[in-house]
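Lab meeting, item 3. Inverse folding demo.
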């Protein structure tokens, strides 16, 4: 049995409440999941608590979107190696290209299959 303190922690940066609930439901048995809807709040969390992986929406409220936050993560000496998976409703081919160019390790478009998300997360933090 995995104890709470030994579980890998995922930061979910997502502004859609239904998506947050669904993703948390999928992941909470195996991982600790914390979530926020704002890029700036995510940036603060990344500096306050250990995070093993970020699930990043592209469209976020406020002045910083998910791609800009990913670029900040990649530019940070402390965080640059942190895995970031874009999970977004932006599903055009250019959105995938832009996500990967910003530094996302992987791109998943919504709606996604349950196993697609679980497999991607597992590849980066098994």
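The presenter then showed the designed sequence:
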């Amino acid at each position: 049995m995995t104890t709470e303190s030994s579980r890998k922690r995922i930061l979910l940066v997502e502004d859609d409440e239904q998506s947050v609930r669904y993703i948390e439901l999928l992941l909470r048995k195996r991982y600790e999941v914390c979530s926020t809807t704002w890029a700036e709040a995510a940036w603060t969390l990344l500096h306050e608590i250990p995070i093993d992986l970020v699930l990043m929406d592209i469209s976020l409220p406020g002045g910083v979107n998910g791609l800009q936050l990913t670029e900040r993560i990649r530019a940070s000496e402390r965080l640059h190696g942190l895995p970031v998976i874009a999970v977004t409703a932006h599903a055009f081919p250019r959105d995938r290209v832009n996500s990967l160019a910003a530094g996302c390790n992987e791109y998943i478009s919504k709606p996604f299959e349950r196993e697609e998300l679980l497999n991607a997360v597992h590849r980066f933090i098994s």
